[in-house]
Design a protein that fits this description.
- By secondary structure, this protein is α/β, with parallel strands linked by helices.
- The chain folds into two domains: 5-157, Rossmann fold, CATH 3.40.50; 166-260, ProC C-terminal domain-like (ProC C-terminal domain-like fold).
- It contains eleven helices and eight strands.
- Helix 7 crosses helix 8 (194-215) and helix 7 (162-189) runs antiparallel to helix 11.
- The longest helix is centred in the last third of the chain and has 28 residues, at 162-189.
- It is elongated.
- It starts with a strand and ends with a helix.
- The mean pLDDT is 95.
Length: 261
């Protein structure tokens, strides 16, 4: 893509997006990252990425602006860059719980506005990104989608579902990692060293995901293939369910959404 990209907010998510772009051969000199403490971005400046603490300069010199600041900062940042966000710019917010209407109200001009919700797996090009918009043209949507396609997979959704996308796709990374951690701890308890348990658990989770992605089956269809009558798999699953495994996960997802809403 010839267009220049600015990432306003070089925190964990902003850096994950940058890492994904760079690993997908995006031209470093066409990428700008901002952060107040730019010393934390030295590894990017070493790669010829433009690093600055000046948000207005970053917006002025870029075509697509990805807002990746903390939710409590977004309103102030949008007002700060408002004079630079001309109608020709594309603004993409990856900030949760801040609607397109709210973004528009903070800007003087009316650029193309989109919301996107990737996750930190963007840094290894394995994110799932949900994208929503109200006024963007097909070409602008295509440009933004191509950015996030480089970081994994993308899905277009209606904006009212963005909070749910945040919980399932972004918070979901933490849920899955906590599950993996528990598998590792269980593996250690039954005899493996931590390194071996980690390898088995992480590859097992990866394999389970690939089964669903490539075969398109419901999870229960794949579960049935490894649960034999009176076997150890069904015994373990039933014990987990008796202790609230599925219900705890579902309640956690719903509670996270209640926190955002």
């Amino acid at each position: 893509m010839a267009k220049k990209i600015a990432i306003i907010g070089g925190g964990n998510l902003g850096k994950s997006i940058a890492d994904g772009l760079l690993s997908n051969d995006f031209e470093p000199s066409h990428l700008t990252i901002t952060r107040n403490r730019i010393e934390f971005l030295k590894n990017y400046s070493d790669k010829n990425v433009v690093v600055t603490k000046n948000n207005k300069d970053a917006v002025r010199t870029s075509d697509i602006i990805i807002i990746a600041v903390k939710p409590y900062k977004i309103e102030a940042v949008l007002k700060e860059i408002s004079n630079e966000t001309t109608a020709s710019k594309i603004i993409v917010s990856v900030v949760s719980d801040f609607s397109i209407e709210n973004i528009s109200n903070c800007l003087e001009a009316k650029p193309s506005l989109l919301r996107a919700m990737p996750n930190t797996a963007a840094s290894v090009n394995q994110s799932i990104t949900c994208i929503a918009t109200q006024n963007a043209s097909e070409n602008d949507i295509k440009d933004v989608t191509s950015i996030f396609d480089a970081l994994g997979e993308t899905i277009l959704i209606d904006e009212p579902l963005m909070d749910a996308a945040t919980v399932l796709g972004a918070c979901g990374i933490a849920y899955v990692l906590r599950f993996i951690r528990a598998m590792i701890q269980g593996g250690i308890e039954i005899g493996f060293d931590a390194k071996t348990a980690t390898k088995i658990a992480t590859q097992t989770v990866k394999g389970a995901s690939e089964l669903l992605l490539k075969r398109g089956n419901h999870p229960e269809a794949e579960i049935d293939k490894v649960t034999t009558p009176k076997g150890c798999t069904i015994t373990g699953l039933n014990e987990m369910e008796h202790n609230g495994f599925s219900s705890a996960l579902i309640k956690g997802i719903k509670t996270s959404l209640d926190k955002i809403s």
